[in-house]
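Late entry, evening session. Most of the bench is empty. Finally got around to the prediction I had been postponing all week. Sequence below, unchanged from the version circulated by S.P.
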Amino acid sequence: MDRRAEFFAGMKTIAPIIVAAVPIGLVFGAVAAAKGLSPLEVTLMSAMVFAGGSQFVALDIWTHPASWTAIGFAALLVNIRHVLMGASIGRKMQAFSPAQKYLGVLVMADENWAMSEARANRTPLTPAFFAGLAAPFYLNWVFSSLIGSLLGALLGDPAAIGLDFAFPAVFIVLVIGFWKGPSTGMVLIASGAAAILVHHLVPGAWYIAAGAAAGLVAALLTGRFRKVATAQ
């Protein structure tokens, strides 16, 4: 398959996720505008940060003047999962040059990472396919954030029309794509329980790191138990 075909195959794969991500971008833009950010500032934030989860967390603790230390630390906690995601997908980027790998992880999001992992399980992952996933997803996030900031007053309360559920709905779909039986369920239960517990007991975004750590430990334990059971 040539590069053009690979690129369009990536675009076709990510298209349903892009549709689902539009409401999330609109909500972010509207919330950012309500916090006092201009459309230009909203657009630059989405273009330069490109991390929906950390952007929402940043807005949640946004003050005037903004505490850049607190916002930066919260973003670090939210995005620490990218270390594991990058380590996982990096092993499947044999066809990428060093520069292509750097650009790839720079625009890596949960959605295009999940689609890349699924692709790599079936056939070698190519730079063109990854670009087809990442480029339209990135542009959609920036553009929908801008539209949300411009139409924030018209959108009103996102919860009133169900837009606030768009974010978790996308992640539920991604998780289902990685379902591998009871072991996956154990990882999800451990991660969710740890995140909920820490969210109630510890202020800030520590619950995200706790959920990721608990999920990682659960994955290691279930993998070890599976190897023991197989050996017996």
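Two things to note before I forget:
The chain is about 80% helix and 0% strand.
The radius of gyration is 19 Å.
Will write this up properly tomorrow.
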